[in-house]
Design goal:
By secondary structure, this protein is α+β, with helices and mostly antiparallel strands. It folds into 3 domains: 2-110, 2-Layer Sandwich (Alpha-Beta Plaits); 150-244, Chitinase A, domain 3 (Roll), CATH 3.10.50.40; 253-428, Trigger factor, domain 2 (Orthogonal Bundle), CATH 1.10.3120. The chain is 45% helix and 21% strand. The chain has helices at 21-38, 51-82, 134-147, 250-255, 263-297, 304-321, 336-358, 365-376, 382-390, 393-415, 425-428; strands at residues 2-7, 12-19, 91-96, 103-110, 124-129, 150-153, 163-172, 175-188, 210-216, 230-244, 417-422. Strand 7 (163-172) and strand 8 (175-188) form a beta hairpin. Helix 5 (263-297) packs across helix 7 (336-358), helix 7 crosses helix 10 (393-415) and helix 8 crosses helix 9. The chain is elongated. This is Trigger factor. It is an enzyme of class 5 (isomerase).
Amino acid sequence: MQVSVETTSALERQMTITVPAERIENDVNKRVQHTARTTRLDGFRPGKVPLKVVKQRYGASIRQDVIGEVIQQSFYEAVQQEKILPAGGPQIDFKNDKDGEDFQFTATFEVYPEIALADYSAVTIEKQSSEVKDEDLEKMIDTLRKQQADWSEVESDAKDGDRLKLDFEGFIDGEAFEGGKAEAMDLVLGSNSMIPGFEDGLVGAKAGDEVEVNASFPEEYHAENLKGKAAVFKVKVLTVSTPHLPELNEELFAKFGLEATDLETFKVEVRSNMEREMKNALKMKLKDQVFTQLVDINAIEVPSSLVDSEIENLRKQAVQRFGGGADIDPSMLPKEMFEEQAKRRVTVGLLVQEVIKANEIKADDERVRSTVEEMASTYQDPKEVIDWYYSNDEMLNQVKGLVLEDQAVDSLLASANVTEVAVAYEDAIKPAQQ
């Protein structure tokens, strides 16, 4: 087998592979002999079909099968021989496929980039810390009560905290705009779920009122044609309802899956959940900051095949996240929606792998165990979950991958300039600004 490699771009390689005709013919003859022993044809006893007849009838398809296998085998042998690591599957083009002559094809593929990590010691990282204070706990308990509130319709003026059922239509410069109309929509005043000015304009309204509300779309609004625009909404208030908060008792506690039977135990469990949520949020924001800086100081080209593969993953995740079933084809979602995110994910993945390699990081067994235990702690029977992870290599390897990533972050932080900043609980749980 002859192999030649041409560099066609920074990451693309074109490999020309020539396979001797003898190898093809020998494999074809072996397959023909096997087919002759197993095939059944009218007029011939089983296993006695002449090779010539088998070759006439099945020779072309047998040769195509052989060539397919030879391509796979020879490509694998060639990249091993040339010490090349493909970043994705090759595009195959035949150059010579004539019977009796050496078989020749080209394989075009991408390789992983060579990465020389930049010095991370000049990077400055802001590490946030926080705590759950008593007032944070009381606010959370109030929020939980509101989630379970009973609503009753009232004739009084609407105020913050009341729920309104509305019909409305929005206009910009006197023209109705797409997406600005709704019927029988529920809105809790003070929830800040609508654009600035909308909810304020409904304070004091009663059931049956028809109100014109002036509101403005933010400059950073997602719809390009609405950014910064002033709008007038014609609103009809169908009903106004006020909430009745439930008592803090065992019945309420059970609705949140908590085992508490008294208020103090309930508070302990809620605080524990808040602290776990806060810890994870702070960890994710720190990791995001570390990775952002890592990407900023390491400009690398990434294989488009890896980006395309990640786009497919993001498409599937998007369909699942929004409740799509088998009737929605993820490929219908525009590629452009995910391209930037996919490229960043691939870039981060390649750089983190290089950090792990450069620092010879191995997954710490104790850290893997504590991570599994922490994940299992939210289940009713933690031991059963822990045993399941340790009996499932695939799931355990996923945890090891997370631990390796965390250890890579620790390694980068050890060389960076880290400043610690205390923040309020509400700021701590906010996601990182993208």
